[in-house]
Amino acid sequence: MTTTGNGDDCVAFNIEDGIAWVRFNRPDKRNSMSPKLNRRMDAVLDALEFHDDVGLLVLSGEGSAWSAGMDLKEYFRETEAGGLGAVRQAQREAYGWWRRLRWFQKPTIACVNGWCFGGGYGPLYACDLAIAAEEAMFGLSEINWGILPGGGATKVVSDLIPMRDAMYHALTGEPVDGRKAAEWRLVNEAVPRDRLEARVREIAAVLLAKNPIALKATKDAIRRVREMTYDNAEDYLVRAQEAANFHDAQGRHEGLRQFIDEKSYKPGLAAYDRARSI
Ligand code: ACO
Question: Is the CB of 34 under 6 A from ligand 1?
Answer without folding.
Answer: no
